[in-house]
Amino acid sequence: MKNYRRTLPSLDSLKFFEAASRYMNFTEAASELYVNQAAVSKRIQQLESTLGVQLFFRVGRHLELTEQGKQLRGKTAIALDYLETAINDLTSSNIDTVRISSNSAVSLFWLLPRMKIFGLSDLACAVDLVTTDKQGELTSTGCDLSIIYSDGKSAEWNCTLLFKEELAPVASPDMISRLVTTQTDCVSGSLADFPPTTLLNYERAAPDWINWGVWIEKINIPELLEWPTKPCMTYAHTIGRALEGEGIALGSLALLDDELKSGQLVRLGSEKLATDRGYYLAHPSNKNVQPTTQQVFDFLLNSI
Question: Which of 138, 185, 188, 220 has its CA 20 to 30 A from that of 34?
Fold first, then answer.
């Protein structure tokens, strides 16, 4: 008989590792886990000590996974998914839980802050958040609601617009201070007028995603193609690095409204690209909307 207590690290440490390896940023993982950055760092150190291997290392100011970390990340995510499914199967008949899917950027920068307010309100009910950056999984998870990036046209989902997408360069105040004398100078003129600066880029996971290459082509500033780029694992990862002052990210302005209003991020240059896409709050067209689902749906719409 297996003794998992002896052979496996704690479940909490694996949950912390999964979040940290998904965001590649302890601060972003901490926000999802409702703890501070130090707590994530401590859990990762404990896990590395338990396993006797190093899982992360730093390159400059950002994290990378070691080979052992890469091996553990995939299998941990699969194991936690199986465990989550098993628990949901047991509890779904007893608790009226609303399941909401979104990608990591939407979850971190838009959905989580609102669900915290919802959870503290008189409207609170059980909510299960499903986060994935794989487009196919967003709409195939059996969720009651999904926040999807699209043109709003779908036979399978009834879509209600949350906000249209506008993309503009953003950076931290620390980065801005290295480029301009005052922050009031940073939104005048073109991005190309500033000294060449690292562009935080990410791979397009779907044809309709826009990264720096697409943005530069559509805005028609070819000289920006000569600027250095730094690859990031996800869109959320680019924003995390921008917040740490490592470069300029493409900011989805409505999605990052809180960070822009608080001054954590600042627009750079006057250019912005309005796409024909947006973020939609959707529910399956073949599924009746339950009262608790409608409650969450209305709350999110009214939070804009």
Answer: 138
Architecture in CATH for domain 4-90: Orthogonal Bundle (1.10)
Select the more confidently predicted residue: 162 or 9. Answer: 162
Flag the least confident range among 1-5, 66-70, 128-132, 221-225.
1-5
Specify the amino acid at residue 273: L
Angstrom distance (rounded) from CA 110 to CA 106: 5
* 3-class SS shares of the chain: helix, strand, coil, % to 5: 45, 20, 35
pLDDT at position 197 is 95
What is the rounded CA–CA span in Å between residue 146 and residue 140? 10
Q: How far apart are CA 102 and CA 238, in angstroms?
A: 17
CB-count exposure of residue 228 (10 Å: 0-12, 13-18, 19+): exposed
Residue 70 has pLDDT above 80, yes or no: yes
H-helix or E-strand spanning residue 71: helix 67-91
pLDDT digits 0-9 by tens, 5-25: 777 888 889 999 999 999 898
Q: What residue ranges of the chain are covered by domains with CATH 1.10.10.10?
A: 4-90
Mean pLDDT of the chain: 89
Give the model confidence (pLDDT) of 261-279 as tens digits.
999 999 999 999 999 999 9
Specify the CATH number of the domain 95-304.
Answer: 3.40.190.290
Cα 81 from Cα 79, distance rounded (Å): 5
Separation of alpha carbons 175 and 304, rounded Å:
29
Q: How many CA atoms lie within 13 A of 185 on its CB side?
A: 9
Angstrom distance (rounded) from CA 141 to CA 210: 25
Query: How many C-beta neighbours within 10 Å does residue 75 have?
Result: 9
In the chain, residues under CATH classification 3.40.190.290 are 95-304
